[in-house]
Amino acid sequence: DGGITQSPKYLFRKEGQNVTLSCEQNLNHDAMYWYRQDPGQGLRLIYYSQIVNDFQKGDIAEGYSVSREKKESFPLTVTSAQKNPTAFYLCASSIKSGGSTDTQYFGPGTRLTVL
Amino acid sequence: DQQVKQNSPSLSVQEGRISILNCDYTNSMFDYFLWYKKYPAEGPTFLISISSIKDKNEDGRFTVFLNKSAKHLSLHIVPSQPGDSAVYFCAAVIQHTGNQFYFGTGTSLTVIP
Prior knowledge:
The complex is a heterodimer. Chain A has no helices and eleven strands. Chain A is an all-beta fold. In chain A, strands 2, 4, 5, 6, 9, 10 and 11 form a seven-stranded mixed β-sheet that branches. In chain A, strands 1-3-8-7 form a four-stranded antiparallel β-sheet, with no helix packed on it. Helices cover about 0% and strands about 55% of the residues of chain B. In chain B, the strands form two sheets. In chain B, strands 2, 4, 5, 9, 10 and 11 form a six-stranded mixed β-sheet that branches. A five-stranded antiparallel β-sheet of chain B has the order 1-3-8-7-6, with no helix packed on it. By secondary structure, chain B is mainly β. At the A-B interface, strand 4, strand 5, strand 9 and strand 10 of A face strand 4 and strand 5 of B.
């Protein structure tokens, strides 16, 4: 089945540790995105990538890092510099980017809790 | 600065009646709008979209209306069903600048059987 997978679904980490969230898609989509959702807030864009080996900061990139070495994969690292890392993280992808709009399709999300 | 706003955090509707979810935006450059539905602990799923060249788009029980002069869009669900109970997000994008979506804060819809 084609789709977007995120793993793990629930993740617990100690304060001060870096943690990497996985996002994989087999939809052959060019663009991939990371959002974070907090209670009472909409989805806020962390990073996005329109093509392999290229990515741009979103609205709340501080304390996060990403890589896009393969079209299918867009892992997000939550670093110890992120002051409030506990949140629900969503990965999305779209078929193409720039010039026209294509619907973003979301993965199931990862709930990160920092203890 | 929140460019897309959903001012009603929650809405309750009786089964079979109409649900109307509202969304306002501030950036007049937005030219494409989408609605997503989200269940707890799951990713949002695409529901319906509308381009700024239209003022209405219909898909089954779901209709989205766009009022560009008021910078307002709404999602109508008729008839509402208990399975429609979820959080609904509107999103807006400026197409020629790329594919960055701006999401509202969401409205939690409860359809009462």
